[in-house]
Design a protein that fits this description.
Elements: H1 2-33, H2 36-50
């Protein structure tokens, strides 16, 4: 299971950079530790990165 998480983290970092990695780390830590604040912060970061932008 840790290899799956590491693989997903590498894909997120490749596609979304450092902030994607921070968001994914906060989300996974929040879920494992049972901390809704960390999970919410990670989800918010990932949602903002995935939101479409008008150019």
């Amino acid at each position: 299971m840790p290899f799956v998480t590491l693989g997903i983290e590498q894909i997120v970092q490749w596609k979304y950079g450092l902030m994607g990695t921070v968001g994914f780390a906060l989300l996974s830590f929040g879920l494992k530790a049972g901390s809704p604040n960390c999970a919410c912060a990670g989800t918010l970061i990932l949602a903002l990165l995935l939101a479409p932008t008008d150019n």
